[in-house]
Amino acid sequence: MKEIHGEEARVPPSDLDRHLGDLLKNKDAADLTFQVGGQSFSAHRCVLAARSSVFKAKLLGAMKESCSAASPIEICDMEAHVFKSLLHFMYTDSVPPKLDVAMAGHLLVAADRYNVVRLKQICEEKLCAHIDSNMVATSLALAEQHGFPRLKEACLQFLDSPSNFKAMMASDGYEHLTSSCPSVLKELIARILPAEWSVAKEVVMKM
Amino acid sequence: MKEIHGEEARVPPSDLDRHLGDLLKNKDAADLTFQVGGQSFSAHRCVLAARSSVFKAKLLGAMKESCSAASPIEICDMEAHVFKSLLHFMYTDSVPPKLDVAMAGHLLVAADRYNVVRLKQICEEKLCAHIDSNMVATSLALAEQHGFPRLKEACLQFLDSPSNFKAMMASDGYEHLTSSCPSVLKELIARILPAEWSVAKEVVMKM
């Protein structure tokens, strides 16, 4: 099946995303309730199952019977506004118009947790495109902890400059990076060793 | 909410339509069954309600309790392959890749019946763009019976030529047109009267 173009140029663009966005907003025929950070969200089992393999396993598998609109599903370790944007993406395939870097980080973790693949790609691209010395430590820790190789490589490339490295060391996220991901710092040091000192890389990695 | 472009150019296009198409195919969490022309179709109440105001009224209104996966909803006066394409459009916003004129006519009637607005527009445009002397009588009857003014006008314009008119009179659909919509034939005759005979239009319309 494909879209008709040309001769049917008078036909307006797809409204599937708008209709599903309305469905989320109006809660028509909602058969699930979530409790997230003290807030309640209604949703539809079949939409979440269609959009996330993790929700599909949860909602159509063993947990099936225990999930209903009457017995809320509690989501821990996620802020309500992040879950709200995750839900919105699942229904409409779109992200908040002013997706800032911090929100992209939160959404990346959420999308990874529920395997919402395209949202993960959007957020990872957003973070890769907006690496600066303030955010790089946080992004690097995120990439290392959750396994986002493209983001990790982009951070390492950014830090391959003494001035960026120095600024990163003064940033808020540095302490978190050193405590949560000490091995990635070793990896960084090993990368910036002069070529003739490649023999020392092994030493660094064992420190 | 809007789509991100440019910096996230690596992100693949929307997959909402594909995911919902898979949902329809796999029948995951389906909570409705339809019986159409001897065939059975599974579907999801919330998707149909989101996509069709007529289904919304039926499935979330008074009929709500009587519709379930276990008690099939019977759809009369529609062929199974037409209902299948209608369902597919509701989930994916796309029509069969080789939508022929006959199928566009069937789908136009189906989309009108369930108020699937964009499908109606696509089918009406398809019919308007493919008027020929074989199909014009059928399309005109359809336009007149279901109230599609753009299609009716396109047919009338096509028939504003003696050779097209003559060919239409020899076509299979002509008899159906004369029996089902005699008034539109009068309208045609009135249109082709010479300008100086405009006084006779009234006579024709009263014949």
UniProtKB/TrEMBL annotation, chains A, B:
Pathway: Protein modification; protein ubiquitination. Residues 30-99 form the BTB domain. InterPro entries: BACK_BPM_SPOP, BPM1-6, BTB/POZ_dom, SKP1/BTB/POZ_sf. Pfam families: BACK_BPM_SPOP (PF24570), BTB (PF00651). GO terms for biological process: protein ubiquitination. Belongs to the Tdpoz family. This is BTB domain-containing protein. It comes from Triticum turgidum subsp. durum (Durum wheat).
